[in-house]
Amino acid sequence: MPLVGHRTILRFIYFLGVVRWYNLILIGISQYLLAAYVLLVKNGSDKKMAFWQFLTDTTVHSMALATIFTVAAIFIINSFYDLDKDLINKSNMALMSRAIGTGQLANLYIVFNTLGLLFAFFASQKVAIYFVMLQFFGWFYSHKMQKIAVLREISAALLTIAPLVAIWIHFSFEVPELGWYFLGLTIVLLVKDIMKDLAGMRGNMIFGYRTVSIMAGQVGIKRIAWLLSILATAIFLIGCSQLQNIHDLLYITGIGLVLTFLNTSLWQRLEQEKYLKGMLRLQKSVLLFYVGALLILIIYRYVLFFVYDIILP
Q: What pLDDT digit, counting tens, does each position of 181-236 carry?
């Protein structure tokens, strides 16, 4: 009996690894931070009202739960289709998937998608339609688009940013400057996915995955990453020229794109492949910067001023 209990706990731990629980937590936090910031800007100086709306907005809470289940389902179906390839590129992930079993993964995929749609319908019909499209796109990406160069990388970036865009849609595109934020974040994600594909080139080649890194080669992929970084910098400068008062989100976007540019520049100068994983970790840290900077911004403009109003009414 204790052995069965230990196996159940071990399989649950493996399952958490397959659905990448740390990514789910990060996406959920990002959604709440964006919702809090939009409400802060929307309510202007009335921060108490913004705080109350943030706590009582059941649609945002439902969307966060729908996102967790839907994204977990996308990770499950992705690991289902990538099982053989992951044995070469990410052996630990493949072993965890096999320990759970393909049949169990398929059942969990259906359950999680169903739960995601239930919470999406509870939010609103508009949100439900959006999540139906997101779930279909997640399946289509895992089943077909992963093996098509360019579309693979662009689709992966769009799938990652889609839950955040859902928050923007919920607020009827309040705070137009969020468009620059999402655009900058998408480019950062593209550079990260290109570097990630280069790190997993061996498994992709064996199982017929046509990626940008395979089509362009190591030298070509570095040039593409360089061009994307230059494009990102140009986009940031265009955004600055269109806004008289540089928006807070544009500051975050600009610093994130500059960090991506510096990371790409450093990558160009390191010829050894062993440095690639280090560069990929640095690029992932840029994504964490987007979340961390938004949190600091909300604490400064939201929490501190809220406390200040209480102390000195």
A: 898 899 888 888 887 777 666 666 665 667 777 777 767 777 787 788 788 778 77
3-class secondary structure per residue, the chain: CHHHHHHHHHHHHHHHHHCCHHHHHHHHHHHHHHHHHHHHHHHCCCHHHHHHHHHHCHHHHHHHHHHHHHHHHHHHHHHHHCHHHHHHHCHHHHHHHHHHCHHHHHHHHHHHHHHHHHHHHHHCHHHHHHHHHHHHHHHHHHHCHHHCCCHHHHHHHHHHHHHHHHHHHHCCCCCCCHHHHHHHHHHHHHHHHHHHHHHCHHHHHHCCCCCHHHHHHHHHHHHHHHHHHHHHHHHHHHHHHHCCCCCHHHHHHHHHHHHHHHHHHHHHCCCCHHHHHHHHHHHHHHHHHHHHHHHHHHHHHHHHHHHHHHHCC
Per-residue pLDDT at 285 exceeds 60: yes
pLDDT value at 158 more than 50: yes
Domains and CATH numbers, the chain: 1-171 (1.10.357.140), 176-313 (1.20.120.1780)
Q: CA–CA separation, 164 vs 67, rounded Å?
A: 9
Average of per-residue pLDDT across 59-81: 91
pTM of the model as a whole = 0.86
Is the separation of the CB atoms in 147 and 82 below 8 Å?
no
Instruction: Say which residues have a Cβ less than 8 Å from residue 217's Cβ, sequence separation at least 6.
Output: none
Report whether pLDDT(95) > 70. Answer: no
d(CA 23, CA 15): 14
Q: Give the whole-angstrom CA distance, residue 140 versus residue 77.
A: 10
Which of 200, 247, 235 has its CA nearest to residue 221?
200
2 C-beta neighbours (distance < 10 Å), count: 6
